[in-house]
Amino acid sequence: MIDAALPLPKRDAGGPRLAGGRDVRAGLAVKRAMDVVISAVMLVVLSPLLAAVALAVKATSQGPALYGLDWVGQGGRRFRGYKFRTMVVDADRQEAALQAQNEMNGPAFKMQNDPRITPLGRFLRRYSLDELPQLWSVLKGDLSLVGPRPPRAHEYARFTPFHMGKMAVKPGITCLWQVEGRHRISDFDDWVRLDVRYIETWSLWLDVKILVRTAGVVLRGTGV
């Protein structure tokens, strides 16, 4: 359960306007329909792979197959999301000791050679297989296929008013950061700038282009 008493910063009412302020309600309805259809089809088609990955995680390291995350979505709404576990079971407790090696300036944590990642976990991350359980969150409506990556609750608690701009829309599994700057960006402000650019220029065609580019990242195995 997520702690309902978690102190969350006040949302910035002056965040970026979706697609430059245009009325995109019809487009967003189509976007949601795409999310439902694609996530449902993928969950069915990939069910043997999902089962195989879950068994592999359980067989190769101690702990559950799934790792639960307390995420914050659009407008500060909190929800529970899941990935396949790619780290040792006490990874969260070890993060504080690794903060000096954090390669991301800001509230997010990023470490290229994170010692908490299991051997199988590195493979899963390389091909983004650890992200597959998030398709269930898309089907439920907590996530979209494309949108700014959701922050964890303790990261959101450190957001500045500028960072709040990325919370104007529903978060997603993949985004501009995933396909344009994931390996180059080491400043969280730059990450947020990409998210704001996505929000302010959003269109269905932009989502399609990001999904196609994400497929390329997955097939090339550059998702680490």
Please sum up the structure shown.
By secondary structure, the chain is mainly α. Helices cover about 40% and strands about 10% of the residues.
How would you characterize this protein structure?
- A hairpin with a 5-residue loop joins strand 1 (66-72) and strand 2.
- The longest helix has 21 residues, at 25-45.
- This protein has a two-stranded antiparallel sheet with strand order 1-2.
- The chain is globular and about 50 Å long.
- The protein is built from nine helices and four strands, in the order ααββαααβαβααα.
- By secondary structure, it is mainly α.
Q: Top keywords for this entry?
A:
224 residues; mainly alpha; two-stranded antiparallel sheet; 9 helices; 9% strand
